[in-house]
Amino acid sequence: MARKIIIDTDPGQDDAVAILLALASPELEVLGITCVAGNVPLALTVRNARIICELAGRPDARIFAGCDKPLERALVTAEYVHGKTGLDGIALPDPVMPVQDQHAVDFIVETLRREPAGSVTLVPIGPLTNIAAAILKAPDITDRIAEIVLMGGAYFEVGNVTPAAEFNIYVDPQAADIVFRAGVRLTVMPLDVTHKALTTRTRIEAFRALPGRVGPAVASWTDFFERFDMEKYGSEGAPLHDPCTIAYLLEPSLFSGRQVNVMVETGSDLTLGMTVADWWGVTDRKPNAWFVGDLDADRFYALLTDRLARLP
Length: 312
Fold this sequence. Notes:
By secondary structure, the protein is of the alpha/beta class. The chain has helices spanning 13-23, 42-55, 79-82, 104-114, 129-137, 167-171, 173-180, 191-194, 201-208, 214-233, 243-250, 297-308; strands at 3-9, 28-35, 63-65, 120-124, 145-151, 186-189, 255-260, 262-264, 275-277, 289-295.
């Protein structure tokens, strides 16, 4: 039976690849795609989600608009990485598929209450505003969530938007703090692992050679945003952060990590949004997350290429 998931997202080229991977995988039933402000403002993340679903030949997917700003602070965006639309790199048609009338937070709450307890996995690959807002609105849902598999945070790799913080957590650290304290089963894909999921010229050309329209689109997106990372890190390619979450749901054996305690810094100007992972077990804080540290990058890209080839 397919695993039921809700993808919470702020697309973003790497978000787009994660969504495409999920839509291409029959093991997963995407109940809805909830959008949040993050890489770009909410109006653009919603628009981009529609573009991605239409590219995948899935105008039937249900898309919900969520929170347009973090719980307590002003929105920080990342057009400098993703371009002014959030999906720069290839011109795609304007979307025509509808957006659902229901607010994303209400959809998350209603779905978790309707579906059998422990049957729905949340996959947040942007700031955690929508997830935290749902928990605040309906604390009863925490016992019904099967697992939260999120992309966010960093420990050994340190931050990518400040010296200490990864972007998704930094945008809404208060929301992240709520999620990490919620007592829900958590799997975290931090920069520690995603920075090992690097594109290479060979891997990008494998996408470009795929039949249909999806592979070339993914190749164009990765061409666009890898320039930023290569210049910043001096790396061979750019990390595909967000697809790590979906790949984990499909093939958990690709990844390795540790069950540790992870807390989010919310009080310090210097380290705001830092995910403080007790990797070495030096505190008595109870482990609350499986914090991933490594992956088999070749198998990860083989999975991505195989699945994207199934799309139109």
